[in-house]
Design goal:
Strand order of the largest sheet: 3-2-1-4-5-7-6
Number of helices: 9
Radius of gyration: 18 Å
Number of domains: 1
Low-confidence stretches: none
Mean pLDDT: 92
CATH superfamily: Vaccinia Virus protein VP39
Shape: globular
Distance between the termini: 33 Å
Oligomer: single chain
Largest sheet: 7 strands, mixed
CATH topology: Rossmann fold
Length: 250
């Protein structure tokens, strides 16, 4: 496992503090009970199908890999890198769920913050993130720009977010009113309300995802999935040729 390095954001520190040793151990134990959980199986199937879109073996990055519970869902992977802000979670990822089903030729675990860590440009064909963005890390321009820089031509960015309409989010009076008023408000007010409703990227719906990805990615699919915890958006986006051209100029 690679040692931590570089600046750690407030969100990275929160994640590392939350997923400390005891919590990480319990989290890993829970992984072994996921075989009958519909949402987990749906996420695994989503990743499995996504890997099938590539014609040749790929290099993949699990952004916020935790205990590595989704490593076993990947196919056609040569190099797999798991990045997480919690060293305790990565220690558990060293012996992940269904390890015997992992087909990646090599697995590297890296301790780092998704917002501030850096990989060399064009390091990966696939970057995926489940249960992290717009949940433990804001879905903002930094994340999107990092993914675009780290992906190769034709690479894909696949991720989930917590939808702002999820029942897991407290339905305060202000949230209920804001949700009702936003669609009929003038654009400046609507934009302000949407920023409040998404807590500036801590939740993300289809519109916010499209806004964030615009110019750097083309959305291939965007759907919803209800788990035992949240209402999620599931997005698969392809790195655009515009990004490739920009890199050539630089």
């Amino acid at each position: 496992m690679s040692a931590p390095g570089g600046y750690v954001s407030e969100w990275g520190r929160k994640a590392a503090d939350l997923y400390a040793t005891d919590y990480a151990r319990r989290y890993r134990q829970h992984d072994d009970q996921l075989g009958s959980v519909d949402a987990y199986l749906a996420f695994c199937s989503w990743l499995h199908d996504l890997c099938g879109r590539f014609d040749t073996p790929i290099d993949a990055l699990d952004l916020g890999c935790g205990t590595g519970r989704y490593f076993c869902a990947l196919t056609n992977v040569s190099r797999l890198v798991g990045l997480d802000a919690s060293g305790a979670m990565l220690a558990e990822a060293a012996h992940p769920h269904d390890a015997e089903r992992i087909t990646a030729r090599g697995v590297e675990l890296v301790e780092g913050d998704a917002l501030t860590h850096d990989f060399a440009p064009a390091s990966f064909d696939l970057i995926y993130s489940i249960g992290v963005l717009a949940e433990h890390t804001p879905f903002d321009a930094r994340i999107v720009e990092n993914a675009a820089r780290w992906l190769r031509r034709g690479g894909r960015f696949a991720f989930t977010t917590v939808h702002p309409e999820s029942t897991s989010i407290p339905r305060t009076i202000s949230r209920v009113i804001g949700t009702a008023v936003a669609p009929i408000s003038p654009w400046p007010i609507r934009r302000w309300l949407r920023t409040r409703l998404t807590s500036n990227g801590q939740y993300a719906d289809e519109m916010l995802i499209a806004e964030r990805l615009n110019g750097l990615f083309l959305i291939e699919s965007l759907s919803r999935l209800e788990s035992e915890a949240h209402l999620h958006c599931l997005c698969v986006a392809r790195r655009t040729e515009r990004q490739v051209v920009a890199e050539r100029r630089n």
